Amino acid sequence: MSDSPILFSVEDGLARLTLNRPTRLNAFNAELAHAWAEVTVAATSRDDVGAIVLDAAGPAFCAGGDVLDMAQTMGSGSQIEELAGVINRGIRALTESSIPVVAAAHGTTAGGGLGILMCSDYAIIGADSRIGSLYANIGLTPDLSVSAQLAHAVGQRRALQLVLQDRLLTAQEALDWGLVAEVVGADGAASTAADIAAAVKARAEEVARFWLSNAYAAYGQAKRLVRSQPARSFEEQLAEEARSIGAAFETADAKARVAAFAAASSRRPQRPKTEETP
């Protein structure tokens, strides 16, 4: 495997971003931060990308910031702030794009890794996964969009439970809270951590391929509408929905799909009316 801190490939419309610091549980140092910002912007700027898979090498998805590296190379809070700003560029690239993102988050996700997980629009984890905040354990505060996205994902009270305790959610708790969409390997079919990680990645690719084989541009615009809603008033959101569906109706893909639906409906036999049928 490449020594690059993040791997990037595009094939048949699918972009894959793989965090690649497995020996550090994919924790962010300066090198990974800059590579992350560059790769996410590149992936979301390409016309040939219709879906993105975000996954990771090694035994965990992302342990947040590399605390050891911080202690050895960061001499001031301003340096930490600057590095967080670099990572935030990548977070914004993914969340503000009109390309749906699925995360394959096997193993542990903690600290800023939670923010990276929430960059995805559809998150899949393993039955053995654990997810938490843990910032205060080392005297730090949430970053990398955790305070911006967590309450929207699970509600304010649950968000506070997570950031005010050193708690790691189980996979089932993360699913019950609505933090993730699916848990893979709960049936015991995948017996080892490696098996579960492989199953999580396979399911994430299946989800991405589903988007690509269908109206992926419409899925992308639906993602954009939901993600960008907090920036608008209710009236503004209704207007943006109306504008968006009008623009979608003019696309060749929508015209073909609407025509096919109408043709299929016209061939469908009508239910005969009875006296009881209004």
UniProtKB/TrEMBL annotation:
Q: Cite the entry's keywords alphabetically.
A: Lyase
The reaction(s) annotated as catalysed by this protein in its Swiss-Prot or TrEMBL entry are: a 4-saturated-(3S)-3-hydroxyacyl-CoA = a (3E)-enoyl-CoA + H2O; a (3S)-3-hydroxyacyl-CoA = a (2E)-enoyl-CoA + H2O
Record InterPro entries: ClpP/crotonase-like_dom_sf, Enoyl-CoA_hydra/iso, Enoyl-CoA_hydra_C
Transmembrane domains' residue ranges = none
List the Gene3D superfamilies. Answer: 2-enoyl-CoA Hydratase, Chain A, domain 1, Lyase 2-enoyl-coa Hydratase, Chain A, domain 2
One Pfam family of this chain: ECH_1
Q: Does the keyword Oxidoreductase apply?
A: no
The similarity comment for this entry is: Belongs to the enoyl-CoA hydratase/isomerase family.
Protein name as annotated: Enoyl-CoA hydratase/isomerase family protein
